[in-house]
Design brief:
Order of helices and strands: HHEHEHEHEHEHEEEEHEE
CATH topology of the largest domain: Rossmann fold
CATH architecture of the largest domain: 3-Layer(aba) Sandwich
Oligomer: single chain
Largest sheet: 7 strands, mixed
CATH class of the largest domain: Alpha Beta
Distance between the termini: 36 Å
Radius of gyration: 17 Å
Number of domains: 2
Length: about 240
């Protein structure tokens, strides 16, 4: 069973809609939005894509997990966001060149790719499907901080419905992180344990991958409010064109 398939039922409880993500996109593209086309890679259950469609964007959301896509499709009302199951490595073969004004890849989705080569290939594919002045908007974790400070866990998520533990174990030989999650449903005490490998790309490596892919204007931030990236920042937010 896919890593996110088991937690899909509780995904919105773990990661509720983050309005600052939408404002970040709106700030990058400016208005009017009715003619702006956006691809949301790793769209999850679709909250961001639907919110952007309600703001006037033409949004296509993709996710590798079919359960996530079905949950996103179930949320569609009168705003026609489009959702489809797709591996992010397939975007160039399923979309026309210069098709999008923006490509989004939030939620640490990028580091589910296996290595630096796959990441650079994705960056090149994104550049291929973006319009000439299109924006690639990314958010991962700040792996410089995580690796340099030997961070072993991410902030604990605890609300009325669930707790969600996120544990990191770094394999220095393979340069991979084993990401273990423990979801506890409070009402039933049900526990769901999952593991997946992540490739912890550093900021300079990501900059080089973007630069090699044809992006010349690359900005790094410490959050979606565009605050300065600091050594101890946990998020790493990127705007590239």
């Amino acid at each position: 069973m896919a890593f996110y398939e088991e937690i899909a039922e509780y995904y919105d409880d773990i990661f509720p809609f983050n309005k600052t993500q939408m404002e970040f996109v709106r700030g990058s593209l400016k208005g009017p939005y009715h003619d702006k086309k956006v691809l949301d890679i790793g769209c999850g259950t679709g909250d961001l894509a639907i919110a952007l469609s309600e703001a006037g964007f033409a949004v296509t959301g993709i996710d590798a997990d079919s359960v996530m896509i079905q949950k996103a499709m179930d949320k569609i009302t009168h705003h026609p966001a489009t959702f489809t199951r797709m591996d992010m490595r397939e975007i160039a073969s399923h979309n026309n060149p210069s098709a999008f004004d923006a490509v989004l890849c939030f939620g640490n989705t990028l580091v589910h790719l296996a290595n630096i080569q796959e990441i650079e290939t994705l960056c090149k594919d994104v550049k291929h499907i973006l319009k000439q002045d299109g924006k690639f908007l990314l958010q991962i974790l700040n792996y410089d901080y995580i690796l340099d400070h030997n961070i072993r866990s991410l902030p604990f998520i605890d609300n009325q419905l669930i707790t969600f533990e996120r544990i990191y174990n770094y394999d220095t030989k393979k340069n991979l992180i084993t990401f273990k999650t423990i979801l506890t449903v409070k009402e039933t005490s049900k526990k769901i344990v999952n593991k997946v490998s992540l490739f912890p790309i550093r900021k300079d490596e990501l900059y080089l991958s973007l630069h090699n892919s044809g992006f010349s204007n690359i900005s790094f931030y410490g959050d979606f409010d565009r605050n300065m990236l600091k050594t101890e920042s946990l998020p790493l937010v990127i705007e590239a064109s």
